[in-house]
Design goal:
alpha+beta; 2 domains; six-stranded mixed sheet; 12 helices; 21% strand; globular; binds ligand BES; binds manganese (II) ion
């Protein structure tokens, strides 16, 4: 495979413009007010896949948002790569913290992106990274170098749990048959430290509701004599971690995979600067489970975090009130061998059991998924390693990520194939946060590296 560099250099402006157009559509899957835009984005992706050289592209209806499926099959005897990505994005709020509107992309230089970065919701997660694959396909078809078969499956519900994708995969095993799955929806350590993601955490996401009195009460007339749902909820939540920051839910750690000392030592070799890490997010110290390093805490260890908490009076001024109800959204990041359904049950049972008299508790599960690890001796991993060596001039470091793409474990179960996670984002790209951005250098480097993966994977499959 010839280097895509000259082609990229020649088409760079168009590659950027096309991505910018895609980023202008607010495909927020969580908010039904944006339904039209989500559907419009699916159409736009379809059009671009056709232009890039797919022989057929369909918008596949599901009980939820559609899946864009495209393929270019050149020879049955050659391997097939299935590319997965998502065209939906996270809600942009809090809006007032964006320096430029989330759906009006602008290019700005930053310390880590001296060549400029595109600021927009979805630029890195995942429209920008997904679109690298569309442009890589364009390069290979335009220059007559596509070495194998390719299938694209781009969904619109990743940010809300990929429910319809599970439905779709179960019904289309044959259509989706492949030799390897390729995803760019993760990150890498640094532009000069390429890495391949070898693990993702699982997830259990629940919402809890604590109810006290049947109406909001005067906090003077009743205060002290009835359980205050907000006081109770915060106390219950606080009790979910002990003084060493271990999670206190009985049985929570039972199935956790313990890494050997050799594996942990190997992990510790990855470059990491604690001071820079703290500075980048404006904290004066890291915090977490006793006995583990920062990199271990956010990758190989399970966690429990409150993502949102509300109740009572939060308007201007002061109102004296004891709320009838208090709520919280809680996520648990899980590691290999922990079953998310079992964890959800353990959480529910425990949370109900620690509720004091005077309140009632409801736990509502949202969504979840299993963790994933992939070996570094698979054909796919080796091909990816070669591809990075070619375009970065360095061997990439295998790295477990703390994030979740729950559908990856399901792919392995249903389609029996390994997933290779070639991420080009940086942790500092602010995915899910205000001012999300994606480096232009990273975007183009991805487009350059992906065709090399196709090449080496095909070669090594012979
Ligand atoms: N692309 C992310 C996951 C990710 C990001 C993994 C960076 C590793 C590194 C994905 O879109 C995402 O946000 N996943 C959600 C889970 C989903 C079920 C809502 C997450 O991790 O919170
Ligand atoms: Mn994503
Ligand atoms: Mn995301």
């Amino acid at each position: 495979m010839k280097s895509a560099k000259p082609y990229i250099e020649k088409n760079k402006e168009r590659f950027l413009d096309e991505l910018i157009e895609l980023l202008k559509i607010p495909s927020i899957s969580a908010d039904s007010a944006y339904k039209k835009d989500v559907l419009k984005t699916a159409e736009a992706v379809k059009k671009q896949l056709e232009k890039a050289g797919c022989d057929s592209v369909e918008i596949c209806e599901t009980p939820g948002y559609p899946i864009v499926y495209g393929e270019k099959l050149i020879d049955k005897k050659l391997p097939t790569i299935l590319v997965y990505g998502h065209y939906d994005v996270q809600p942009p709020d809090p809006m007032d913290l964006w320096e430029s509107p989330p759906f009006e992309p602008v290019i700005k230089k930053t310390e880590l992106h001296p060549e400029g970065a595109i600021f927009a919701r979805g630029s890195c997660d995942d429209k920008g990274q997904m679109y690298m694959h569309v442009k890589a396909l364009e390069y290979m078809t335009e220059t007559d170098q596509l070495p194998c078969n390719v299938k694209f499956m781009i969904e619109g519900e990743e940010e809300v749990g990929s429910e319809s994708l599970g439905w779709f995969v179960e019904r289309n095993r044959e259509k989706l048959a492949n030799d390897v799955i390729l995803i760019s929806d993760t990150g890498m350590i640094a532009p000069d430290v390429p890495s391949i993601t070898t693990g993702l955490r699982g997830l259990s996401y629940v919402e809890v509701e604590v109810t006290g009195p049947n109406r909001d009460l005067h906090s003077g007339l009743y205060g002290g004599a009835v359980a205050n749902p907000i006081n109770v909820l915060t106390k219950m939540i606080a009790s979910l971690h002990d003084e060493n920051n271990h999670i206190t839910i009985p049985g929570f750690y039972d199935d956790v995979e313990n890494l050997s000392k050799t594996e942990r030592d190997k992990m510790a070799e990855a470059p990491f600067n604690l001071e820079k890490y703290e500075k980048a997010i404006g904290i004066n110290s890291v915090y977490g489970e006793k006995g583990y390093s920062t990199n271990e805490r956010n990758s190989i260890r399970p966690t429990l975090d409150v993502n949102g908490i509300w109740g009572g009076y939060i308007g201007e001024g002061a109102k004296t009130v004891i709320a009838s109800k208090a709520f919280a959204k809680i996520s648990m990041r899980l590691v290999p061998n922990q079953d998310w359904k079992k964890i959800t049950e353990l959480f529910t049972k425990h949370f109900e059991s620690i509720a004091p008299k005077g309140v009632s508790v409801k736990v509502k599960p949202h969504h979840g998924g299993q963790a994933y690890v992939t070996p570094i001796d698979s054909l796919g991993y080796k091909a990816a390693e070669k591809a990075y060596e070619e375009t970065f001039g360095k061997t990439p470091i295998p790295q477990r990520s703390g994030g979740s793409i729950p559908i990856v474990a399901l792919f392995e179960k249903e389609l029996k194939s390994k997933t290779i996670l070639m991420g080009f984002g940086l942790d500092s790209d602010a995915i899910h946060s205000p001012n999300e951005h994606f480096g232009i250098w990273n975007y183009l480097k991805g487009i350059e590296t992906i065709p090399q993966f196709y090449h080496y994977f095909t070669e090594m499959s012979k």
